[in-house]
Amino acid sequence: MSSPPDLPKFVVWAPDYTDEGVLQRRQALRPSHREKALKLISQGILRVAGGCTTLESIHATAEDKKFVGSCLIFEGENIDVVRKLVEEDMFYKGDVVCVLAAMMDIDTVTLTGSVQWDKEKLVILPIALATSLPPVPS
Questions:
Q1: Is 121 within the bounds of a domain?
Q2: What whole-number percentage of the chain has pLDDT above 70?
Q3: Residue 110 located in a structural domain
Q4: In the predicted model, what is the mean pLDDT of residues 82-103?
Q5: Tens digit of pLDDT for each residue in 52-84?
Q6: Which string of DSSP letters, residue by residue, matches 84-113?
Q7: Are 87 and 93 in contact (CB under 8 A)?
Q8: 119: domain range?
Q9: What is the CATH number for 115?
């Protein structure tokens, strides 16, 4: 199932917050985040996705990588459709704060709004790709 070739593509840069608990939140939310991403990939909506790391983490083991955010490429009718998908992601949503706070045994007051991605710095832009996207998994 692939998207029509004329469907616009959008690149998303979603930087993480930089506070002390950011890595723990990323690890706690990753299973739900990944499950949703795999569904969007199989539908041909999310075409490329990954966590961005520090330069020092290039050769680090998976456990030792230091993430600074996420980069994603979506296909969608318009930027509003893509923005809605991003805002539904576990790394963006604020309504997981109470569950996450309980899991991490922290005060919910220390977390407000987005729990992983910094909403103030998140960027969504149309992208004119010079190369092909990988095929949609069948």
A1: yes
A2: 81
A3: yes
A4: 70
A5: 999 999 999 988 999 899 999 999 999 999 999
A6: HHHHTSTTT-STTHHHHHHHHT--GGG--S
A7: yes
A8: 9-126
A9: 3.30.70.1060
